[in-house]
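Work Package 4 report. The design task specified in the project plan requires that, given a folded chain encoded as structure tokens, an amino acid be chosen for each position. We show below one input record used in the internal validation round.
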């Protein structure tokens, strides 16, 4: 994965509390964020992403619960119809009632015009899963979301001049979640 070394250098040198806060916008597990901060510096983005994956793979059940509890229902993509908003809200309510946490899905590779359809299809198909199967799927989707958010975080650190501004790299254009990037194909529902 390509990234300018400047953004990674900035990430590696952020004060620990700022780096932790920035990482929590990528994944809501405090243990995950602290682990990534403790293992700095990273030589390149691929090493950081590999460490992020490893930290998710090592999640205890409480870490997954914490991360999932911090995911929220985003706004549907701009331009979607109110019927789609209603369908998404109903599907998410049913999912949350069944599994006790927000629906998470990585929509990498889908354009904005396909995202809503994929989102609705994903939530509908996963509603039939048993709770343990869904927990495994949610865990992997959360890992994929964290990777995308982390890559954008590093890019945003490269693009901005003030470290404080770079802490929250995402703009609220595609969701209600404060860490959702406007160019993000990733959606937590």
């Amino acid at each position: 994965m390509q990234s300018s070394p400047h953004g990674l250098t900035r990430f590696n040198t952020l004060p620990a509390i700022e780096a932790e806060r920035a990482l929590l916008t990528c994944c809501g597990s405090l243990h995950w964020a602290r682990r990534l901060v403790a293992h700095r510096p990273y030589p390149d983005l691929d090493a950081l992403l590999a460490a992020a994956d490893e930290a998710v793979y090592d999640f205890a059940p409480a870490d997954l619960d914490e991360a999932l509890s911090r995911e929220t229902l985003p706004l549907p993509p701009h331009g979607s119809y109110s019927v789609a908003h209603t369908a998404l809200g109903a599907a998410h309510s049913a999912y949350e009632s069944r599994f006790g946490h927000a629906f998470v899905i990585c929509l990498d590779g889908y354009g904005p015009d396909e995202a809503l359809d994929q989102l609705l299809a994903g939530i509908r198909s996963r509603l039939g899963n048993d709770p343990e199967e869904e927990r495994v799927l949610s865990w992997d989707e959360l890992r994929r979301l964290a990777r995308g958010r982390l890559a954008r975080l590093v890019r945003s650190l490269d693009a901005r001049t003030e470290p404080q501004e770079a802490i929250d790299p995402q703009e609220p254009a595609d969701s209600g979640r404060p860490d959702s990037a406007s160019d993000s194909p990733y959606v937590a529902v």
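Confidence is low (pLDDT under 50) at residues 163-189. Validation will be extended to a larger panel in the next phase.
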